[in-house]
């Protein structure tokens, strides 16, 4: 028996359930069609477009303004607020339909990423009534401070880095507890993208164990789904805590804002999720669940 080679187990990749294209206000180089081609090229069974729908008016001070690209400066009002343009739901849905016709071998779903939905309940209700999205990701990119809304990355130079992460996670907990319809919590590790490692040292999730468990416990109790976002990528410790909290399902998202990023890091992410007992089912667009 020992001479018979063991077939190499091939990792089955999950759907990329978090992708932005030219229909998102912050995606200048996006292309829905090229994102579909890329998904087929890297062997993904399915792609879900999740264009941004943001209603939070971000406070932009002079220092932040100086760093903004030209296309974003045009969105800043005289009062110093960045007002993201609304999602063109009709145009977006038509583009998804077009891609479904053009790429019949790829399962394409139509979703939305809503920023801080708990701060804008009426606008979120209207958006979700406008179209029955297949996927609804709720995510936060912001922290409330001094009566204004600030992008998380802008706060690391203004307050202790640990406090930024703690305030972020405390508000994500409020977002989960609020009466908002969403299925997936997007990028729980969003602040890590801008963590100032040069001054604060490496980022260790264990420093924020209680805050993460608070969020994960509420998310699991609500029957919702944790996203393995591959941008940072998500630390395996968070998935271990998700299991401890009773979490049952995972979604995977590259958070691609350019076609070449679709499915990025998915082989490693899938292996990590498998090592925690998560497996995909028969539905190519489906979530991974604990088996
Ligand atoms: Zn996001
Ligand atoms: Zn996103």
TrEMBL record:
| Recorded coiled-coil stretches | none
GO molecular function terms noted in the UniProt entry: histidinol-phosphatase activity
Database matches in InterPro entries: Histidinol_P_phosphatase_HisJ, PHP_dom, Pol/histidinol_Pase-like
PHP domain span: 16-231
UniProt-listed Enzyme Commission number(s): 3.1.3.15
Reaction equations catalysed: L-histidinol phosphate + H2O = L-histidinol + phosphate
Which pathway, per its entry?
Amino-acid biosynthesis; L-histidine biosynthesis; L-histidine from 5-phospho-alpha-D-ribose 1-diphosphate: step 8/9
Cellular component GO terms, alphabetical:
cytoplasm
User: Which keywords are on file for this protein?
Assistant: Amino-acid biosynthesis, Histidine biosynthesis, Hydrolase
Q: Which family does it belong to?
A: Belongs to the PHP hydrolase family. HisK subfamily.
The protein's name is: Histidinol-phosphatase
Which classification does the entry list for the species? Bacteria, Bacillati, Actinomycetota, Actinomycetes, Frankiales
């Amino acid at each position: 028996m020992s001479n018979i080679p063991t077939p190499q187990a091939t990792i089955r990749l999950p759907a990329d359930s978090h992708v932005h294209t030219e229909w998102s206000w912050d995606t200048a180089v996006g292309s829905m069609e090229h994102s579909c081609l890329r998904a087929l090229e890297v062997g993904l069974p399915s792609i879900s477009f999740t264009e941004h729908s943001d209603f939070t008016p971000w406070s932009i001070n002079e220092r932040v303004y100086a760093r903004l690209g030209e296309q974003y400066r045009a969105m800043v009002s005289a009062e110093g607020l960045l007002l993201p343009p609304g999602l063109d739901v009709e145009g977006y849905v038509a583009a998804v339909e077009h891609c479904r016709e053009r790429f019949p071998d790829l399962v394409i779903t139509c979703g939305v990423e809503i920023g801080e939905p708990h701060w804008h309940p009426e606008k979120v209700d209207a958006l979700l009534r406008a179209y029955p999205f297949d996927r609804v990701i709720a995510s936060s990119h912001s922290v409330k401070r001094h009566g204004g809304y600030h992008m998380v990355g802008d706060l690391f130079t203004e307050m202790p880095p640990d406090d930024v992460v703690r305030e972020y996670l405390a508000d994500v907990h409020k977002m989960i507890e609020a009466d908002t319809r969403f299925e997936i919590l997007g990028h729980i590790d969003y602040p890590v993208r801008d963590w100032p490692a040069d001054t604060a040292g490496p980022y260790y999730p264990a420093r924020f164990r209680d805050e993460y468990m608070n969020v994960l416990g509420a998310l699991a109790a609500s029957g919702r789904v944790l996203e393995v976002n591959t941008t940072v990528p998500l630390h395996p410790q968070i998935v271990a805590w998700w299991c401890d909290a009773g979490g049952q399902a995972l979604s995977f998202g590259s958070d691609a804002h350019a076609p070449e990023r679709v499915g990025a890091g998915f082989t490693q992410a899938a292996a990590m999720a498998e090592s925690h007992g998560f497996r995909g089912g028969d539905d190519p667009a489906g979530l991974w669940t604990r088996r």
